[in-house]
Diguanylate cyclase (GGDEF)-like protein (Sphaerotilus sulfidivorans), 287 residues
Amino acid sequence: VARTFDAPMRAELMRRRGLVRDLGLLLHAPTGEQAEAGRLMLHYQPQFDLADGRLSGAEALLRWRHPVRGWISPAEFVPLAEEHGLIVPLGEWVLHRACQEAAGWPEPLRLAVNLSALQLRGDGLIDSVRSALAGAGLPAERLELEVTETVLMQDARRAREQLHALRLLGVSIALDDFGTGYSSLAQLAELPVDLLKIDRSFVAALGEAGPRAQQAEAIVRLIVQLGQATGMATLAEGVETPAQREALRLCGCERLQGYLLGRPLESGLLRERMRLSSSAAPLSLPT
Ligand code: C2E
Ligand code: MG
Ligand code: MG
Ligand code: MG
């Protein structure tokens, strides 16, 4: 019995070990090769202003196509990269690549980039952001950096210092997966945050009937009010249905992101979408 238990565990361990090794090799390859091989890339998920339905920007999301194992989810390899000292070079690659690609987007569109807790804690982040912006010629005002709420609670003082330094560069700060962590309102008020990204779990519950939906709606309303009272905008992530979109509109949420409005796209396809949207196409809803 023990053996049937052990074998899958061993296989899983081997898989992770292999992924860590391959990711390490990929990141230490000469600059540019990762992308040339098409193995590590960014997809971009569009974000919209709810009021007028216009495209407002896009979030960069990492994708890894392993030559043998196929597509690997960032939910799997980002934590592995964090555990094995690879997140800093990986995060740098993301920042530089995303800024370069976004520098070609039409003027007001913003780029959102996810930061890991370890990047925020480290010493190189500010320089790395500054050099990514300068290298790409992207104005700092068009970059939004996403950190999770839990990150900020682990070392609140350090996090606050880092966020203030980033703000001085001119970039804006978003709190990702908001509502799932345990930040105190007092701490939150002291943080230089521009945007609250309402976690997908609340948005998912909004579409349902009954008490769960009512509760989720109350929470979303509270987050929006909190944002309004303290000068933070709100964006709902994971919007999948017209009913959810409507509920979010009634709650006063300002921005939307989710499969209903657009899946993460390759850079080229996103630019296509941007061209269409600049010719004044409103929020396109599936009928
Ligand atoms: P996240 O930053 O909260 O990103 C949103 C995730 O939700 C993405 O998953 C996105 O594809 C997915 N999503 C978007 N709309 C919908 C929807 O309507 N329904 C559902 N069910 N899902 C939706 P993805 O791309 O698999 O990324 C997972 C997580 O991996 C991200 O969560 C983020 O925490 C992390 N990640 C991705 N790229 C990076 C990166 O460049 N750096 C770091 N540090 N983390 C990253
Ligand atoms: Mg994010
Ligand atoms: Mg998120
Ligand atoms: Mg999330």
About this structure: The chain has a mean pLDDT of 90.
